[in-house]
Here is the input.
Amino acid sequence: MTTGPSQPRLRDYAIAALLLAGISDTLFFDNLGRPLGLTAPLFAALLASAILVCNRRFLSRSLATPVLLLLLGFASLLEAINLRSLGLTAACLALFSMAAAGRLPAFSQAPAALIRFFLALPLSLPRDNRRRVLAQRRAKQRASAQHMSVQVWLVWLMPLVFAAGFALLLAAGNPILERWLSLIDLSWIVGFLVPGRIGFWLLAAMLTWPFLRPRQRRSVGARKVSALVETISQRDAPLPSHSPLWSQHVYGRAAILRALLLFNAVFAVQTLLDASYLWGGIELPDGISCAAYAHRGAYMLVVTALLAAAFVLVALRPGAEAAGDRRIRGLVFLWIGQNVVLVLSAMLRLELYVDVYALTHWRLAAFVWMGVVAVGLLLICVRIAGGRSNRWLVGANLCVLAIVVAGSCFVDDRALVAGFNVTHSRELSGEGVRLDADHLVSLGPAAIPAMDRYLLHVAIRSYTAMALSDARRSLAEEHRLSMRDWRTWTFRNWRLSRYLETHAPASVPLASMGPFFPPVAGSN
Here is the structure.
């Protein structure tokens, strides 16, 4: 049988995918339902090694940047396992895979390439297998190839049968051989034939195959998404109009100029109100609390800023008539400046709200998101002032977002939330709200250092301190039990283990407990 140059490579990919599926069975299948740990970066490293082996003929291209990104993904997995670190590592592996296969696009086309990669990921293995089957059917030597494959199995049939028979006969006459054969336990094969394990192997092979062999052709869905990304990021002429009347009067230069004048006037009112009540400290009207004023506007102001950014991108798209008007450009810069102030006011509103109702994961994420929006608005100014394209703006914003996600992978948000709430609780700071013990316990073992700081400074006669002391012991024991399995190891968990070894739990004697402190109302 004459084989093409691609078929041996497909065989290499298939062998690598099966080996990775077997390794994933050892690392993950028996540990399903338990937290991930050291197994995730270990499997990612093995997948990266398999990518290099399968695409070794393309390694002449520069891999410095993809390797650095991949090391960043590995470091985030070693720090802690969460959706951010898993997503970051998956994206870095995808870029590394395309670079190793010689298909890494330019920086401006990387977002569309990543979207195409992950859209094609679930069906990549079935489609490649279907193409291979169709290619074999079209080959002239198909019948002889099948005949040859049957002959290969028949050649091994007789030796295996006779060898097994001789082994049984020898074991019957030799007690040592009989004992050795009795030690052979083939029951493990039955464990591999359960539907769940077979499905896990198929899923592992389907998910690893696209990384080993990035697709060259684009599927219909991926082409549509890619076309959408290119449409958003391209620097083309003005949007097509159906009539001169529509283009000149509805979104022409005069209409945009008047719109920006009105928008700046409306935003100026909001800016003055925030400057008076938030930044200036003027007392709010009767019936409106500071928390209510902060909560009502914290998130809506961010939505307003995003809509304003979308209007600016459409109004001053490259090639548009309004893009060259100095008056319009000046009003746009003024409006974007007001939007940046608006986002800063939203962050201040959220800070005031946190002072009243404590910090949560969602409020911490809102702070980060508002900062990203503010940077995005400033990038719009850079894009307009520098005459950049929308493609550059999309790439710059994606870089900012990637930096934020990568940085957040190395921040223990649970410990950060717990430490902030303990530090700013009424018991420690003398102002604010009482500590929400239930929320603190729900943060898990990461909150233990914050609990210790609370128990060292607060009066041990409170029921809250007693409850936290019991919860601290339970969480510490839960953490110690989880760390007995090497597959759940992370650098963050290791640091917590070192902390537990050097910090004894604070004791709260039951006899010394005083009057009951009512529980803190839940945050909203």
Notes: Residues 251-388 form one domain. The CA atoms of residues 337 and 378 lie 8 Å apart.
